[in-house]
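I have been asked to look over a protein record a colleague put together. Thanks in advance; the entry in question is below.
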Amino acid sequence: MIFKRIFCVPALYLCLMVPVLAQKVTLNETNNGIDFVIDNQTVLTYQTAVAEVPEGVKKDFAKSGFIHPLKSPSGQVLTRIQPKDHYHHYGIWGPWTRATISGREVDFWNLGDGKGRVDFAEVLSKKQNRKGAELVVRQNHLDLKAPESERLAIAEDLKINVKPADKGRYMVDYTSTIETSIPGGIMLDAYRYGGGIGFRATEKWGKDNSSALTSEGKVKKEADGTNARWIFVQGETNDASGESGILFLSHKDNKSHPEPLRVWPVDQYDGEGNVFIEFTPIRHESWEIKPNKPYSLKYRMIVYDGEMTAEEAEAYWQSFVK
């Protein structure tokens, strides 16, 4: 696609129309999933195939329906799946943890418990246009221990939209719409993990080579349990600038906005690869999901190389909510 930029030289009363090639975003389907490609470089993959676990690991941890890898504009991989400390962590994803269904506790997050899980079900739509590319998928939240038999507890329509951004960055809109048809509905119980959008960072990041900052000025060691409009996480990579990162934005219409955060303390799971953050709308209060009523959560990610500033992050958030 071609945009035209106008350059004028007043002294010569001359204007030149100079063509500028805009970045193009396309979708590419593979055996593993659906790639989002910007100018021939894959920037993220939504995985439709089941990611098998290593030999000797409980098969319940194998899973589909998540984003990995997600890469910076220069190709640095920023996500991680199946880390040895938490085999149920999958790049960018958002299962609910403690849910009450008909008086029973169901956990869609901790796959090893065998109570519940979330998997890719089907592609609902794909489209590409001059602004970007969009994928909408159905993800099934399964109640594995229901008295009658395994059943669908929550149907989730996940919309992922990728567009180029300024300064060579790109943005990812991530919209989750959930609905249940179970009579009596579901209570998503208050807990420090669950729902929203979670991010398990590359194994290269640890407490000494990564950082975070929230809209309220909280750094990584003090952000856990606080509320925020946005948070960015960045760390050391092989980019020419030396680092890359992701800015996560929570929309003002989301449940419990400004949204509570789960951020691993810097001394938790000591060593490299111990960076985890999540917007968790049910951190401080439960959320009743009534039957046959859709509920949506909207997030945006700005993926970048180099550094993000607080001023830039706030400007991105203002643009998002407008």
Observations:
- The chain has one domain: 2-321.
- The longest helix spans residues 310-321.
- Residues 23 and 39 are 6 Å apart (CA to CA).
- DSSP finds one helix and 23 strands in the chain.
